[in-house]
Structures are given as structure tokens and as C-alpha cells.
Amino acid sequence: EIASRGGTPVLFPSHGLNALGGSDWVGAQARMAADWDSYLGFELGPMFVPHGRIYDLSAYRMLLDVPQCIGAKHSSLSRELEWQRLDLRDRTRPDFRVLTGNDLAIDMVMYGSDYLLGLSTCAPDAFALRDRYWAEGDERFYELNDLLQYLGQLIFRPPVPAYRHSAAQFMKLRGWIDCDGAPLLDTLRPDGDVEILRNIAERIEAQVR
Fold this sequence. Notes:
Layout: H1 15-18, H2 22-32, E1 39-44, H3 57-63, E2 69-75, H4 79-92, E3 97-100, E4 114-115, H5 124-136, H6 140-155, H7 163-173, H8 193-208
Parallel strand pairs: 1-2, 2-3, 3-4
Helix pairs in contact: 2-3, 5-6, 6-8, 7-8
């Protein structure tokens, strides 16, 4: 339905898909994408969800051979693993988009990654400004990136799934939502985080005004 309406499908990890070995994982995607113009793959580490899995480079190399796969999000929270994928991409398929999901290293854009960061939903205005600074060679990129990374380190600290509660706390502070509860989570962030988040929010808003 997504493809038929002009959208780009994202093959989000699932118990069934991630139970497959590398070649079968790629083969399943190729079969699903046979009638699509394009789609995005997705590697998600087990720190995010119980069924998360990061594949080895040989499987990733096979993924690059699927013509409909135009890119893949990589969420291992590991710079090294992402650098390996960037190097492989550059050597074999330069048009392939490595979409970083490393909210602990949002400067991966400096190394050639694009991004699909959960963190960016907390401050899309600040990320848009950061990206403009980077594209224009503006040195203000670094200070704003550092501030956003400070937010990312706080929100995505262990236990990582609690980032959803942190995000709700932050978005409530920015006046975007009315409630910062997260009733479906087993672990919530402490109330003391709110004042730290408030300070970050005020500093971000001072830069994006």
C-alpha cells in the first residue's frame, strides 16, 4: 500500500525477518521488493528491541546488490560498524545511502552518512539548522551539533528503550505535547532529568530563534 501511493517502504526489523541468516535475510527482502521501485532496509541492534540484530558485512554486501534497496538505516550505536559500511558503500555502490541511527554519534554525517535519527524528532528545527550550517560550511555547525549530541547522550543512555520517555519529557518542555507519560515502558526516566532537559531546550531555542 505504501509503494502504490508513491511512498518508500521501510522494511522495519521483525522477529521473523531477523531470525533469518544473512543470505536468507537479503533474499526475503529481494522477494518482497520485486514489484517496488525502491525501499529502505533497516538494521536495529538488540539494545533497542529484543528482536534486534546487526548483520555481518558479508550480508550487508549482498544487500547492496538488491537494486531496489536504495539505502539502509544502521542502528548499532557503533561508529566502527558504521564506518565499515560507509567504506563498503564507497567501494561498491556510492549511490547507496547509509542512514545512521546512532544517536550517540550524530556527527556521522561528517563521515558520509545520512540519518534517520530518533533524536531529530525531538528538535527538528535545530537539526534543520545544523544541516544548513554543515551544507554551507558554517562553523556554527559544531557548537549546535555538540548541544544536540549532549541531548542525545542524555536521552539514549541505558536502558536505551527509555529514550521514548525522555523524548516525551523534552517535547512537553517545548510545548509540543501535553503529557510526558510513557505507560507502556518498563523503565521510566527519573523526574530529575526534567531540569537538565529544560536547560538544553532553552539553549536550543536560543539558537534557532
